[in-house]
Amino acid sequence: MATLTAAQKRTQARIEYDAYLATCPSRQLLSTLGDKWVALVLSALAEGPARYSELRRHIAGVSQKMLTQTLRTLERDGLIDRDVEPTVPVTVRYSLTPTGHSLFAVVSALKSWAEQNMQTVLEARSAYDAAAGS
Amino acid sequence: MATLTAAQKRTQARIEYDAYLATCPSRQLLSTLGDKWVALVLSALAEGPARYSELRRHIAGVSQKMLTQTLRTLERDGLIDRDVEPTVPVTVRYSLTPTGHSLFAVVSALKSWAEQNMQTVLEARSAYDAAAGS
DNA sequence: CTGTATCCGGGCCGATACTG
DNA sequence: CAGTATCGGCCCGGATACAG
């Protein structure tokens, strides 16, 4: 039949909304920044260009896989440059593009907010947890 | 023995780094904002207080579970207020706190960056994919 | 040195059913 | 109306092994 059940309508609405979100610039940016290592890589490269192994050492907790994956994503989005020098063994330098620098500025603003307000947030959290425990 | 293998040292370094990240205000904020629905709930409430069912309708794609979970997290962090009116049936109004409003301002800045630069990013992405396909 | 390929466990999140 | 409880699929991301 042509009519849909309530459940089907809801599912359909969700699919459409997901599609809408997938094209939303803000959401795309947010999900990229939300990635665990993106902000750290941006910060590291904001201090200047660096080689793969330097990044790996500087961001101590990252796994090889995630570092490579993060770098590829950022490169694909035009946020960082990847320069390969044909030495033996090969040398690779990563650096921020202008777009990457401008994104880092935004992230810095976020960082400032966090540093100024996280204390308040943490206190609210403690108060909330204490009330729940009583 | 007292010495550690290279693998053990790396694991240890990762644990310490994770612990460090867990206390980093920026990272905490980023992982919160990265949550799929947080920004959407903030945006919705920035337009004014709303009831649970209103939010559910306004943010069409969200599931009951995730909406509740998101609201709880934001409430816990002191970003939104939850007011219960003892009517029958019960009425619940959510609204942004001052801290919540200030966070929304930051998110708005992020949104502006996304709207201004996502076109460039998308083009870079297309170019990258085209090069890979050749 | 700078990656790629594969396996696999844990957690996120949607669907569903139930409640005051 | 405004939730809570539970199950299950899927994907993220770490560990490991291999390669140019």
TrEMBL record, chains A, B:
Keywords: DNA-binding, Transcription, Transcription regulation
Pfam families: HxlR (PF01638)
Entry annotated with the keyword DNA-binding: yes
Recorded GO MF terms: DNA binding
Domain of life: Bacteria
Signal peptide boundaries: none
Domain called HTH hxlR-type: residue spans: 24-122
SMART domains: HTH_ARSR (SM00418)
InterPro entries: ArsR-like_HTH (IPR011991), HTH_ArsR_DNA-bd_dom (IPR001845), HTH_HxlR (IPR002577), WH-like_DNA-bd_sf (IPR036388), WH_DNA-bd_sf (IPR036390)
Coiled coil: none
Gene3D superfamilies on file: Winged helix-like DNA-binding domain superfamily/Winged helix DNA-binding domain
Protein known as: DNA-binding HxlR family transcriptional regulator
Protein species of origin: Microbacterium trichothecenolyticum (Aureobacterium trichothecenolyticum)
Lineage: Bacteria, Bacillati, Actinomycetota, Actinomycetes, Micrococcales
